[in-house]
TrEMBL record:
InterPro entries named in the record: ThiF/MoeB/HesA, ThiF_fam2, ThiF_NAD_FAD-bd, ThiS-like_dom, Ubiquitin-activating_enz
Matches recorded under NCBIfam families: PRK08644.1, thiF_fam2
GO molecular function, one term: nucleotidyltransferase activity
Provenance organism: Pontiella desulfatans
Gene giving rise to this polypeptide: moeB_3
Superkingdom assignment: Bacteria
Residues annotated as domain THIF-type NAD/FAD binding fold: 76-263
Domain ThiS-like ubiquitin: 1-57
SUPFAM superfamilies found in the cross-reference section: Activating enzymes of the ubiquitin-like proteins (SSF69572)
Keyword vocabulary terms for this entry: Nucleotidyltransferase, Transferase
Protein's name according to its UniProt entry: Molybdopterin-synthase adenylyltransferase
Residue ranges of the TM segments: none
Species lineage: Bacteria, Pseudomonadati, Kiritimatiellota, Kiritimatiellia, Kiritimatiellales
Length: 265
């Protein structure tokens, strides 16, 4: 029968078990991942199963690293999202966090755009570091993402997004992420961008209940994440927890769309 071992198709005997596979191929492995779940007990293997054998603390060779990085994925996910392109307009608290999530799951290509630079007040919620203050966000984020997952393709633009350039920048994407701060910028993207589904956000300021942040579908191709009410204002700031909840909900909607499951949004 055929199984997948560290993302490579392998022919094994019908009576092969997880432990016998480890004994033959990597006896020092102490992390065993079976169909996306870490397990400690022996399991009889079946046709089409996916197994990853990992030794804690060991840096695997380059030709195995990408496969082991996605070993905890649900089986079948990586093959689909590896072919996808996602655009992110705005690389602040939302956009930088969405980008990190999508890089970690291995989306094939990310197109990232923002005109701004990193400054100190960004660091309470955005995915940058103190030594990146003053750098263009597009450049700083690309450097950080390459450290997280060098197997993703990154295209970055340090410029202001306008109705005139948005479709040229993001025309090839399969899903578009709106991650602007200002309402007028959000409206511009929703009105100007044509083609792919849009995952936008509105209402995640303060420190109220995360349960008020949800996903709403508007029309055929627009999904809005947030509570639609709580914007940044004096006495109600933007902070990592609720911004992060919204960003990761946006990333999850993107994943559902790429996998062809928008009905579960």
């Amino acid at each position: 029968m055929k199984i997948t071992l560290n993302e490579r198709v392998l022919e094994v005997a019908e009576e092969t078990s997880l432990f016998s596979l480890r004994k033959e191929h990597k006896p020092d492995a102490d992390v065993l991942v079976y169909n996306g779940a870490a397990v400690s007990e022996d399991i009889a293997l079946h046709e089409g199963d996916s197994v990853n054998l990992i030794r804690r603390g060991e840096t695997p060779p380059a030709d195995e690293l990408e496969a082991l990085m996605v070993s905890r994925h649900t089986p079948g996910v990586h093959e689909k999202i590896k072919q996808a392109t996602v655009g992110i307009a705005g690389l602040g608290g939302l956009g930088s966090s969405v980008a990190v999530a999508l890089a970690r799951i291995g989306v094939g290509r990310l197109i990232l755009a923002d005109f701004d630079v990193v400054e100190p007040s960004n660091l309470n919620r955005q995915q940058y570091f103190i030594d990146q203050i003053g750098q263009a966000k597009a450049d700083a984020l690309e450097a950080n993402l390459k450290r997280i997952n060098p197997y993703v393709g990154y295209e970055t633009h340090c410029l202001r997004i306008t109705p005139e350039n948005i479709n040229g920048l993001f025309g090839p994407v399969d899903v578009m992420v709106e991650a602007f701060d200002r309402p007028d910028q959000k409206a511009m993207l929703l009105q100007s961008f044509k083609g792919a589904p849009i995952v936008a956000a509105s209402g995640m300021a303060g420190y109220g209940s995360g349960e008020t942040i949800g996903v709403r579908k508007l029309g055929e191709r627009i999904f809005i994440v947030g509570d639609l009410e709580t914007g940044a204002a004096p006495g109600c700031g933007l902070m990592a927890p609720r911004v992060g909840i919204a960003a990761h909900m946006q990333a999850n909607v993107v994943l559902q769309l790429l996998l062809g499951e928008p009905q579960s949004v």
